[in-house]
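pls design
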């Protein structure tokens, strides 16, 4: 029996009285929470969301590509379907678009930096340090910078914008769904890879770009969402009739063992050139940063130099899509090829060094195609009959130099495969790419994106997730209630306050209440003179931890001091806590196990 609130008369209890959820409407927050929890728990739903992200990345890629090409057509008077880097002559008056574009870029960047100081987080940095978290506003701004740079004719590509927008979209969706850290990183990789897949019309290339460059590892659980996003982006661009930026080229060479050895040598050449390009870009950027005058004027100054280069060689304009389509198939002399290589490399280095925004992806492909063609022709000129088609050398060089600068041997190999459909040439590209990758890692250690992060003070060398290591700081792991006593206290006073078994270590304080050292309890109880000060047995007087120390530094400090407990001090040497080696080791092992389970997809 139960009572009706209106009549206060007893009535028979019904089953629905005990199941109010059958009649009560869910709140919007409850519906969203239910939706998110189901997506998080289902691999199929994650793939569905990844397809939506890939489609969105395809639309964004098409929009960026259309905007940049429209700007180039308007500024340089291009005919329909014509590419900027394919023009044969550039009027000096039109070349003024480069310094003008640099000035616009500098002012826009200056205005944005006043509102949002700090560098935007790119997908590699996001996945390595921030668990896949990216800013949507910053991603859009990077795309705007890239469109201004490429649209005005600077020798930078739009691939950075494609990856940034795709990764940023995935990060926004991942945060809305409250995804796990591992799923968020996979989504950012899928979004960035989808942007690349859409740009090149090559889903395998985009998928492996995500694995090798953005996520930093290959995981079975990530295959479906990453590949699904790449395919969706490619299909969307086909529906929108967005033209891929690589032409389909057929090569009929029959490669032998000696050819593979020669392509390995080409990989060595590309590795050396790739490292030289990255170091020269950093040198120019450092010199430009030290020049007097406002920062917003620097891209305009770089635009003046780029304008002079463009007048001398219009093929150095933009990323090089049109020039690559023409020059791979056209016969050039060695002198002309050498000039094209020097002009294109100089234009890209100057553009990035003076502050134009964009990537080196396609620029490295174009430059590599020139280097590969030059390599084969130089051998023939030297009397070494290789039997290799210069076009085959161009395609292998394209992949090898891109690997040296961007990274990702399988990414560039699949790009050649999807470009040519030639499995023999694909194997040759893989050979040269692996040689280039190994040499760059051994002698330099960075790709272009991680090298730029290194110049900003970061220590990451890939997109592997090391952010959790930085989250394991002394401040997060320490025990704040550290036992403390004056270092001038007598052994008798110490024993009375800290009997054996109460604790193992006590922090000693000086006369100002600041850290003086660590006092082992057992050592004090072993003293014969009860009037002696405990400072006589104090250890670690000059060894302590800072609150912001990460686990790697912490474990190194424990090894150097050969102790199992250290105090944590602030900048004024005030004690804020203590940390034991055993607890730090356990937390480190727990996070390693979590990372391993994420990698293999274990629950």
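designed seq:
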């Amino acid at each position: 029996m139960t009572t009706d609130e209106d009549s206060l008369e007893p009535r028979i209890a019904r089953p629905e009285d005990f199941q109010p959820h059958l009649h009560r409407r869910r709140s919007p927050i409850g519906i969203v929470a239910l939706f998110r929890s189901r997506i998080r728990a289902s691999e199929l739903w994650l793939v569905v969301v990844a397809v939506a992200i890939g489609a969105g990345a395809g639309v964004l890629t098409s929009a960026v590509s259309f905007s940049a090409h429209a700007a180039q057509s308007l500024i340089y008077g291009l005919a329909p379907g014509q590419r900027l880097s394919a023009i044969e002559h550039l009027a000096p008056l039109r070349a003024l678009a480069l310094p003008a574009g640099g000035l616009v870029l500098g002012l826009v960047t200056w205005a944005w930096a006043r509102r949002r100081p700090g560098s935007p987080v790119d997908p590699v940095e996001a996945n390595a340090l921030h668990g896949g978290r990216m800013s949507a506003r910053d991603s859009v701004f990077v795309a705007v910078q890239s469109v201004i740079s490429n649209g005005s004719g600077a020798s930078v590509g739009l691939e950075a914008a494609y990856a940034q927008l795709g990764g940023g979209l995935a990060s926004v969706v991942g945060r809305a769904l409250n995804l796990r850290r591992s799923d968020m990183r996979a989504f950012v990789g899928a979004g960035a890879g989808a942007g690349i897949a859409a740009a090149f019309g090559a889903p395998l290339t985009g998928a492996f770009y995500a694995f090798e460059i953005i996520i930093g590892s290959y995981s079975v659980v990530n295959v479906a969402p990453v590949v699904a996003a790449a395919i969706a982006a490619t299909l969307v661009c086909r529906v929108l009739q967005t033209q891929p930026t690589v032409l389909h080229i057929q090569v009929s060479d029959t490669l032998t063992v000696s050819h593979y050895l020669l392509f390995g040598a080409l990989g060595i050449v590309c590795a050396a050139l790739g490292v030289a390009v990255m170091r020269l870009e950093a040198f120019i950027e450092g010199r430009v940063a030290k020049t007097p005058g406002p920062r917003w004027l620097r891209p305009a100054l770089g635009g003046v130099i780029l304008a002079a280069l463009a007048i001398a060689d219009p093929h150095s304009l933009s990323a090089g899509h049109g020039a690559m389509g023409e020059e791979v198939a056209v016969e050039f002399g060695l002198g002309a090829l050498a000039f094209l290589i020097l002009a294109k490399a100089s234009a890209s280095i100057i553009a990035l060094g003076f502050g134009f925004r964009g990537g080196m992806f396609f620029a490295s492909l174009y430059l590599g195609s020139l280097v590969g063609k030059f390599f084969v022709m130089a051998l023939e000129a030297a009397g070494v009959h290789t039997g290799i088609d210069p076009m085959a050398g161009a395609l292998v060089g394209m992949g090898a130099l891109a690997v040296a600068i961007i990274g990702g041997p399988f990414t560039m190999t699949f790009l050649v495969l999807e470009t040519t459909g030639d499995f023999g040439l694909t194997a040759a590209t893989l050979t040269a790419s692996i040689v280039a990758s190994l040499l760059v890692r051994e002698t330099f250690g960075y790709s272009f994106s991680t090298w730029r992060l290194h110049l900003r003070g970061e220590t990451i060398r890939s997109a592997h997730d090391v952010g959790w290591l930085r989250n394991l700081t002394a401040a997060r792991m320490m025990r704040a209630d550290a036992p403390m006593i004056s270092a001038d206290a007598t052994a008798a006073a110490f024993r009375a306050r800290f009997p054996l078994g109460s604790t193992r270590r006590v922090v000693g304080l000086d006369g100002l209440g600041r850290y003086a050292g660590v006092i082992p309890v057992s050592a004090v109880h072993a003293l014969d003179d009860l009037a002696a000060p405990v400072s006589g047995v104090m250890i670690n007087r000059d060894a302590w931890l800072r609150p912001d120390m990460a686990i790697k530094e912490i474990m190194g400090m424990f090894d150097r001091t050969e102790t199992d407990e250290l105090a944590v001090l602030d900048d004024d040497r005030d004690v804020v806590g203590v940390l034991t080696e055993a607890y730090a080791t356990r937390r480190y092992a727990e996070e390693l196990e979590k990372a391993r389970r994420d990698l293999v997809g274990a629950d």
